[in-house]
Amino acid sequence: MTTFARELAGALEEFGVRHAFGVSGGAISFFWSALAGTGIRVTHFRHESGAAFAACEASVESGAPVVVFVTSGPGITNVLTGMYAARYEAARVILVSASSESAMHGRRPIQETGPLTLPQQGIFTAGPLFDHAEVVRDPARLPEVVGALAGGLARRRFLAHLSLTLPVQRAAVEPVPAPAAATPPPDGAAEYAAQAYALLRGQPWVMWVGGGMRGHAGPARRLARAAGVPVMATPRGKGVIAEDDPAYLGVTGFAGHATVLAHLAEHPPEYTVVLGNSLGDFGTGYDPGYAPASAFVHVDTDPTVYGRAYPATKTVQVPCDAGRFCAELAALYEADPAPPLDLGLRPFAFDDRPGTPLDPGYVMGAVQSVLVEGGVPVLAETGNTLAWAISRLRFADPRGWRAPSGLVGSMGHFSSGVVGAALASGRPCAALVGDGSMLMLNEVSTAVHTGAPAIWVVFNDASYNMCAQGAAQLGLSNVDCAIPPTDFALLATALGAGGSRVEDPADLAPALAAAVRAGAPYVVDVHIDPSRPAPTMNRVAGLLRDSGRRP
């Protein structure tokens, strides 16, 4: 005989889980201990949301499922923001929480978790947040629980929540062999590609790639070459097509490039093939200039995305895997390939000059040369920092770039998630974050404890500057966005990490290089010019458009 907690932990290891992140508590202690008895690396974080963000990024980086463990009550409420962010990523995350026993409900046990203290629908049951969720009160349900996880983990995206009572965690059970993860059935990609080929052949069309193509850059590039079509990318799709490719138009949506809309206006496509892209606000701003003359050919396994963003434009629905679709369609074009396409566009030139305080665009130039071209993955946090990164950085490989989901866009995602990425990859990973995000949530202490080679490049302007600049552009007043000046390099050293304070342009590249060489947690505190407007005017125009006003 063994225990429920040990059997569940063992099954998770069999399913490929190599990391478990969380914050302990008495009510989850038996499962926490059981995890530590496996080959899974258990990491204790400083905040539950930080653990969830890190789990999301570890799963994206490794492709493997990751566990998050939390205690009852505030453990569950604290973790939900991070799980909400993971919902919209190509991640597989299993949350295991502690639950109060039914007999204790209403008796006010410590950190009570039950229908009298927390909403049940959607948190403890499947719904918009979790693909599978349940409170396990009967240890005899172990085979069904393990089977549900096996089926879910066959998907590219999967979020589960198992809430375990203490009696269940320590209950004696018979060993249950973990079933193999299910194989997804064929999705008809060849047939859909043949139909699309008949529609597109001989017509002007453009590819629009998003973050969902991060793992399918090869097929996407193959299709673009064979079809000889221009390619544009959402902010999360940067690098799917190398950003120095002669057929690359630029970035759409938030902080996007004016070259894209200019080209589409001059050379309107009949069709736009949408790949790994939900056409949400972050990637489009709902700008009508992105709409094709005839139809979107939208390839997505999520049926809820079709026609939502551009209801006035026809959508041809293609419900299959975008990578397989690209490979099948490329093969059809390769029988009679189009000539190579050169749009005549060349790398963007910007007037970013060194000065004190530092121009944020100039800082991105150093990030490009030291981090991006040095092979260090870059994760850009929500805010002005993200806008500068989208506009300025150039990637040849999508695996070197991460931007947050526009649907969530939580501050703290990458200031804590970078630890998960670094632990999963075992190499330096860099988060570009604002001072507001760094103060809101970071896991520098966790990185120090684990030795994770995480790098934080803090764009320090003593302000929530996206809010400040946006309010000014919208004509709003009486908005206080100031943050007391903070020495993040000093804070880093206080936590046991390395740190550099950068105010002089001559110190910038050496500080970034030192962070990479450290191979350990390191914070580069860069003091930037708060008066330099970030490239977010298209976002402001979108806000005015959404409110019914003309920008």
Secondary-structure topology with pairs:
Layout: E1 2-3, H1 4-14, E2 19-22, H2 29-36, E3 41-44, H3 48-62, E4 66-69, H4 74-87, E5 92-99, E6 132-136, H5 142-152, E7 158-165, H6 166-170, E8 172-173, H7 189-200, E9 205-209, H8 217-227, E10 231-233, E11 248-251, H9 258-266, E12 271-275, H10 281-284, E13 295-299, E14 314-318, H11 322-334, H12 360-372, E15 378-380, H13 384-392, E16 401-402, H14 413-425, E17 429-434, H15 435-440, H16 444-450, E18 454-460, H17 465-473, H18 488-495, E19 498-502, H19 508-518, E20 522-527, H20 537-546
Parallel strand pairs: 2-3, 2-4, 4-5, 5-7, 6-7, 9-10, 9-12, 10-11, 12-13, 13-14, 15-16, 15-17, 17-18, 18-20, 19-20
Antiparallel strand pairs: 1-8
Helix pairs in contact: 1-2, 3-4, 3-14, 7-11, 8-11, 12-13, 12-19
List keywords for this structure.
single chain, 551 residues, alpha/beta, Rossmann fold, 3 domains, 6-stranded parallel sheet, 20 helices, 36% helix, 17% strand, disordered C terminus
